[in-house]
Amino acid sequence: MSQTDCSAKGCGLAVLDRMNRLFELLSMGCLVGFTVLVFVQMVARNMFNLGIAEFEELSRSLDISMVFLVIPILMRQGQHITVDLFLWGLPASLDKSMKLLASAICIGFSALFLYSGYLYMARHWSVPSPVLKMPNILFFGPALIGMALFLLNCIAVFVLILKKKDA
Fold first, then answer.
1. Lowest-pLDDT range, 42-51, 91-100, 119-128, 137-146?
2. How many CA atoms, within 13 angstroms, populate the side-chain half-sphere of residue 132?
């Protein structure tokens, strides 16, 4: 990383942006895999009266992975779910405070999610999935990794809002 990258954006944000880009590519791969598996499953069921349980379970895993890998990126880009109707009625002076509050709530939620995931995985990490016998740590690992990146992005957004002068 060059010196200009660090001074223009901050080294932490540049690394976080690269991680976000990697997760975006991984989530696109999950989407492609999920789509192919569901299509093959649909053709197999409708044309050959054949259900492929392995494809069902793998597509479910890819679906979970895709969602949790893309959530951090949406948060960072401000494309996550917001309740704008509530914000429209507030005075502009409260805008920054409400954004900080929302970011703080997201930080708390992601920390609680990660803690509960840790407690669950500490006891059940090796429990296999029904069909593929995939351990829970592989099945739900991407969700925990995605939520960890979500936490980092929430903290970054919180700090960026805090440093911003006008809102």
1. 91-100
2. 15
pTM exceeds 0.70, yes or no:
yes
Query: For helices 53-76 and 11-48, what crossing angle results, to 10°?
Result: 150
What is the signed CA dihedral for 26, 31, 36, 42, rounded to 10 degrees?
150
Tell me the pLDDT tens digit for each residue of 104-134.
999 999 999 999 999 999 999 999 999 999 9
**Cα 32 to chain center, whole Å?**
17
- Cα separations in angstroms, 52 against 48, 101, 131, 135: 11, 46, 10, 20
Write down the domain spans for the chain: 3-163
Instruction: Fill in the amino acid letter for 62.
Output: L
SS3 of 16, please?
helix
